[in-house]
Amino acid sequence: MNTSVINIKTNSEVKASAQRVANGLGFSLSALINGYLKQLVKTKTAHFSLNENTPSEYMLDALRESERDVKAGRRRKFANSKSAVSFLDKLINEGDKN
Q: Which domain holds residue 26?
């Protein structure tokens, strides 16, 4: 397989973050960039999302679980934040005893 080198300039923080994401997905950054380039050639389109508030799959799963809990009646209501924190403290303390 013939290969070529592409040198690009990018912010070092962006590169480090992109490498962490790629590694988390089980890919090298090079593999993801190659995949993107192949898609660009094939579709002749470029897709970018500027919405940084798009929830992750982990967050979407947590929201789905929360919806199931609410429907099943597994929820608690608190009058204020102090009572919520007290409840959590109690759970933590009970966990430390076990």
A: 12-43
